[in-house]
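Hey, I'm writing a tutorial for new members on how sequence and structure tokens pair up, and I'd like a real worked example in the thread rather than a made-up one. If someone can provide the structure for the chain below, I'll link this post from the tutorial.
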Amino acid sequence: MKRACILLGLLAAGSANAADTYIYYNPTYMIRSHVSDLETALAGVGATTTVSTSSSWATSWAGYKLVIILLPASSFNASQVAGLETMVNDGGRLVVSSDYGSGASWTGPNNYVESLMSDLGTSMSLTGVTVNPTGCGSASTITADQVNDAVTGMKLSASNAISGGTALVTYSGSTILAYDQPASAPAARTPYDVILAGDVNLFIDSCSGTTSAGSNITMWENLYLGLCPDADGDGYFDLICGGDDCDDTAYNVNPGETEIPYDGLDNDCAGGDLTDVDGDGFDSSVVGGPDCDDTDATTHPAGTETADGADDDCDGIVDEGTDWYDDDGDGWTEDGGDCNDASSSAHSGAPEACNGIDEDCDGLIDEGTACYDDDGDGLSEADGDCNDG
């Protein structure tokens, strides 16, 4: 029992310390302090990081949301590339930076980066064109995509330009930060799967090799937080990290769907199910609302009853208050020949009584009774006419 408790304690401690972000930096060109602000920024949004200078690359990157390779100094073999592909296709993101070539050259592409992009099957490559060989570029000359929104102080020095992919950041007309997807990616994938930078100073933000707190921090936060899960594989990502899929467990719920009425789902993530199809301001009775006909905008509880055979005001009574309604319940309406719809004894075909009323609605009063003057002499049988014929 004691050994079991110790083992459980070690497992719990191990899981609590598991890192979800991996940062490699090249110790030949960078020092530990170069990545300190990156760690701080990522920790601020919940990331846990492993920092390494070893280019003995792993063959499995399971569990990582973000893998950052700053100036790789060795190549990746097939197993290592496959491990990166699996990490990315499981919802992670790979960020790779360049800005130096072989030997003392800072104008050519990094061959290790070139080979990695090629092996991943992305369209991106480093062109070896020096964008700014003489010093740091200012933020005012850099055009940034939303992944870098609100970033200030972004700088570069001897940047390689990037061809292929989709530009995220450009400088003087050249792409210096771009994204693409690996060839092995499923059809519906998170944007910015693989990000390639032509200059490591985009991330450490200093041509002098030191960082300043707050510089380009938003970019790192966005790169980490933007790793939205797409659990249902519909190409839209969960709200929990900035996506716009309001239900990442349902493939048919996302902003690209058409709203289906009365299904209890917010199919298009616009804010609730479609329950008022005719747009009259009243929800359908199908979903417990008061609108008895949600296909007709004139039919609802505030509607005006008309002679049309429909319950226009949804009170359960059809045509009340119109000539089509049988007010006295005698089976006849005014429109159907009832000349007195306030009396159930008066309607077409009713028996005539000696009472001065036209019960059968034929325009004659008391015909066929002793009260009627059959011979037109001004006296009826009831008045004393002994021969009313």
